[in-house]
Each structure stands twice: as structure tokens, then as C-alpha cells.
Amino acid sequence: MIEDTQEIWMYCIYCERAFRSSSKNNCTYECCDGNLGDIWEWDVILKLNRNYPEIPVQGEEYPLFGDVGFTNLRRAGYDEETRRLPGNC
Ligand SMILES: [Zn+2]
User: Fold this and answer.
1) For the chain, which residues make up each domain, given as ranges?
2) How far is CA 82 from CA 20, 48, 49, in A?
3) Which residue from 42, 49, 58, 62 has the fewest beta carbons nearer than 10 Å?
4) Residues with a beta carbon under 5 angstroms from ion ligand 1
5) 8 A C-beta contact, residue 31 and residue 14
């Protein structure tokens, strides 16, 4: 269980960049409208893209479907309408 005040690496599926935050409410990058539902934990991205670094580089773009494509996402239970993975809401 992650405490509310603890900052972890998050990922915005809108701008496909990572940032440290304790909240999934909005993207911290300027000019990005990513908000609740668009912000995933970096851990989830790591599971989908095993070649990505455990600690992402701030400001660097990491394509969500880097080396997996939609097939693996669907296999993981990704819902295209709600853009959510099970357990990631
Ligand atoms: Zn963003």
C-alpha cells in the first residue's frame, strides 16, 4: 500500500512521459491535459515494456506501446473504452 504522501514514478499516457508524484490526479508537465485515468504508475508501464529502465528519465518520452503493441495489452485485460488496466483505477 502506497501512502498518499509518498512520491513514486508515474506515467502520463497522454504525453507518454514519466514524472515523480504522489498523486494520479494530473500530469505535472506543462501544456499537458493528462488527468485522472491518464496517469498510471511507472510499474505498470514497466510490465508492458520490459526494456524500459526501472528509473525513467524525467522529460523523456516512452511510448506506451513501445515493444508490446495492443495484443499484449489486451491480454493483460486492457479496456480500450475506459483506457484502464484491471487494478489500475
Ligand atoms: Zn502528460
Assistant:
1) 8-75
2) 24, 18, 21
3) 58
4) 12, 14-15, 27, 29, 32, 34
5) no
Q: 82 or 34: which carries more pLDDT confidence?
A: 34
Query: Whole-prediction pTM value?
Result: 0.71
Using the predicted structure, report yes or no on whether residue 87 has a pLDDT greater than 80.
no
Residue 40 buriedness (CB in 10 A; 0-12 / 13-18 / 19+): buried
- The string of pLDDT tens digits covering residues 37-76 is 999 999 999 988 888 999 999 999 998 877 555 666 677 7
Report how far ligand 1's centroid is from the alpha carbon of 63 (Å): 12
